[in-house]
Amino acid sequence: MNASGDFILQTQKLTKGFLGFIAVDSVDLNVERHTIHALIGPNGAGKTTVFNLLTKFLTPSSGTILLDGEDITAARPTQIARRGVIRSFQISAVFPHLTVRENVRVALQRQLGTSFHFWRAESSLNVLNERAEELLDLVGLLRFANDEVADMSYGRKRALEIATTLAMEPKLMLLDEPTQGMGREDVDRITELIRRVAKGRTILMVEHNLGVVSTLCDRVTVLQRGAILTEGAYAEVSSDPRVKEAYMGKSAA
Amino acid sequence: MKKYLAYALLLTLLLVAPLLFYPVLLMKVLCFALFASAFNLILGYGGLLSFGHAAFFGGAAYVTGHAIKVWGLPTELGILTGTAAAMVLGLLVGVLAIRRQGIYFAMITLALAQMVYFVFIRSGFTGGENGLQGIPRGTFLGLVDLSNDRAMYYFVLGVCLLGFGVIARAVHSPFGQVLRAIRDNEPRATSLGYNIDRYKLLAFVISATIAGLAGATKSVVFQLASLTDAHWHMSGEVVLMTLLGGLGTIFGPAVGASLIVTLQNTLSSGPLGAWVTVIMGLIFIICVLAFRKGIVGELQAALRKSFN
Ligand SMILES: Nc1ncnc2c1ncn2[C@@H]1O[C@H](COP(=O)(O)OP(=O)(O)OP(=O)(O)O)[C@@H](O)[C@H]1O
Ligand SMILES: [Mg+2]
């Protein structure tokens, strides 16, 4: 019934309860292939929890997760990552004490199959530098390749995160508030970057900045208190009075 | 280039050291430097505070002592046997502890090490409170008589450089790269498809094995394996050495170990002998308050600053 090839990711009645409190409530999410899909909703709506369930950082209380029509509800986080579902995190997900190049290289490294080789020289990883630098160039960070990440600005860390995610050749990228806490200029830069890297991929993103959602996203799902409030194109959703109400005094904050 | 010059200088110093200092003290320093370096692999590069490393250090010492004294194994084989025992013990402890994080990891490693300690108190082969005494030093490959302190020193130097080499390589290997990534951000490493528990376990086993190598060698130097080596004080001391020298730096732990061992040695024979523990505690406090990165870490930071 749901084997339609159009959907890369589907959830059926996905539910998560924490000690009697339902954080995600019977969510049916359908993410179409090669689209940018937004998941929005007020603070505490359960957006990050949905991401944690999709990547199995949390185990669903009930419900099913389908990737390409295949049930992955029982898969482990690493298995999901290896199938091309790569997530970012709400707070920046970089390796602060590695260099910028190393951050990307770590993502490329698994394909060499030498990641347990503790007797091999680190220079054996240099074959990956070219690809790492290509990716860094794509996100405009090439000239920082040798810098330690800890000293970089927040916006650049988020860009680096995207480069690292891209290194995994993801089919589906899950971005949790990629523009959170950024100044106007950085927001524009990251928006542009996401648009660029979305070509030939699917992106599911949590985003509070409705300007970003409106310019970037093909489809929007609104979550409220763990349940789907409505879903549709941005214009449709944003004119829905229930959505306005859910966001009242919120988007201003 | 400068780096190689520095290494050559260091090696020369290590080679002429027994002409200038008392070789037994130097050997003690070397063994503890290796022990601390092994510990640093798991704390400094793996981000896991093990509070049970004395079990591997002391355990290997007992097994080596027993293998040489009772089974009559040659010295090298005896040391290898003790080291292998530490590896197996490290695997057992690691499998049980590795899923825990932070303070829970420290607690479970401490608890398991205490169990090992009580086994050592109870079982006959350790000689109980007296320890395993009179372990013969034997020869190196049947050629060099190790009862000579200078000969023994060069043997110990070789063993320690080998162990140190393994650690330095592991840190700067594809494996070390992933390990540092895991230390920096576990969830992110998971989301990149790495099975983090396996990496931590391998790091733990390597660390335990080299800690065992250090303990095994020490037991041959002093011809003694005793409860002191397996006591939790020892687990604490190695934390202190590593922090003092510089956590997560290649040479820091060795520097920290040299300082602590020399200090203990100087103090214990002087009028301050009874105050050793207190002085160690003070050093620890100063270290934590004033120079967090440890001696080598602070030096590196200062150097980096003066270059920028
Ligand atoms: N591990 C957990 N244990 C208990 N409660 C949790 C846990 N994780 C999340 N929650 C709760 O679930 C609810 C949803 O949290 P979640 O982080 O998914 O919200 P969100 O939509 O991402 O919010 P924000 O916009 O603030 O990021 C919140 O009430 C939160 O307190
Ligand atoms: Mg969130």
Automatic annotation (TrEMBL), chain A:
For this UniProt record, give its keywords in alphabetical order, as a comma-separated list: ATP-binding, Nucleotide-binding, Transport
- Limits of the ABC transporter domain: 9-250
The record's annotation in SMART domains points to:
AAA
Q: GO molecular function, one example?
A: ATP hydrolysis activity
Q: Which InterPro entries match?
A: AAA+_ATPase, ABC_AA/LPS_Transport, ABC_transporter-like_ATP-bd, BCA_ABC_TP_C, P-loop_NTPase
Q: Look up the domain of life of the source.
A: Bacteria
Keyword field contains Metal-binding = no
Its cellular-component GO annotations read:
plasma membrane
UniProt cross-references to PANTHER family, sorted A to Z: ABC TRANSPORTER ATP-BINDING PROTEIN, CONSERVED COMPONENT OF ABC TRANSPORTER FOR NATURAL AMINO ACIDS-RELATED
Its protein name is Leucine/isoleucine/valine ABC transporter ATP-binding protein
Q: Which organism is it from?
A: Celeribacter baekdonensis B30
From TrEMBL, chain B:
Q: Which GO terms describe its cellular component?
A: plasma membrane
Main location class: membrane
- Kindly list the places in or outside the cell where this protein is found, as annotated in its UniProt entry: Cell membrane
State one molecular function term (GO).
Answer: branched-chain amino acid transmembrane transporter activity
Topology in the membrane?
Answer: Multi-pass membrane protein
User: Which InterPro entries does the entry link to?
Assistant: ABC_transp_permease (IPR001851), LivM-like (IPR043428)
What is the organism of origin for this protein?
Answer: Celeribacter baekdonensis B30
Superkingdom of origin = Bacteria
The entry's protein name is Branched-chain amino acid ABC transporter permease
Give me the segments passing through the membrane.
6-25, 32-57, 77-96, 103-121, 151-171, 201-226, 238-260, 272-291
Assigned keywords, A-Z: Cell membrane, Membrane, Transmembrane, Transmembrane helix
Segments forming a coiled coil: none
